[in-house]
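Hi R.,

Here's the chain you asked about this morning:
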Amino acid sequence: MSQHSQRKDDHLKLAKMLFFSSHNELNQVHLMRPVLPEIALSDISLTIKLFNKIVSAPFFINAMTGGSANAEVVNRRLAQAAAKENIAMSLGSASILEKEPKQLNSFLVARQENPHGFLFANVNPNTSPKTAAKIVKILSADALQIHLNVLQEIVMPEGDRNFHWLDNLKKIQDSVEVPVILKEVGNGISKKSLAFLKSNGFEYIDIGGSGGTDFATIENNRREKNKLNFIDDLNLSTAKCLLGAQENPPEILISSGGITTSMDIFKSLILGADFVGIANLFLQHADSTTNLIQLIQQLKSELTTLFAIFGISDFSSLSNIDYYLDSALFNYFKQINTKKVD
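And here is the predicted structure, written out as tokens:
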């Protein structure tokens, strides 16, 4: 097994082992429900259009893996569940294919199992535009995620040390014929950074906030010595990222980072997200396709119930729900909107 494939397996193992929840600070957002919602469950549909396809829910299986035999098994099960329930799915980084094309099947299996579903391809910001376009084409991907993972690369002993990424990101976007989503990997995107990305022509953003899988932490766990724990304080939670995006949101805002419950999904939508990505929760249930399907069905059922409790029959009405913030989160919200603090 190559070093790159071994790292893919290490990521899966450590992500599953380090799984935790409720650190995304969405528990500091409190909703106020109407006493008379005036709605029936039968009035509610979670169906929504994601770019060019209709999906059955506003949440999807976010980027996890690919590039090893173990990853192929996981991607097969995830794709089978996504196909059965008609939710979108993202593959993990396929940049490995530049040097190891023999790993293609670990990614291609997702399209084979779900030929008509919505599929995100995923590459790193240094991937050549030509390779990115080739990956999109061979996977018949509906969109392309590019992950922004500076902290992970810093901690990774074999990681990149040159972060002149912007020009290549623009070239990739110009080279592919599908939407390009820029995605953090568990450390969050600040209000100022979001504005910068938008000013450079990127309107589809996955905030990838802290609170769930943190690839910098994963890489620190891979290091046998000289761990770089001093960067642990550089994260922004999912809730903080969503609040930071409210003043100047991108065309499509995706919430991710420690999403483990239907309430997390619901609060994300209320705070302005258009879609919600979930990774590690699905990984915890990826021992069988049946378990994944049951989890998706449970999340759909619970989310429908929440829509009913709050009298919401369409996504545009979510912004009408009242909420209040705990003092720490409220203080952050005030500071980023009154001072040059990021």
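One quick note: The radius of gyration is 19 Å.

Cheers,
M.
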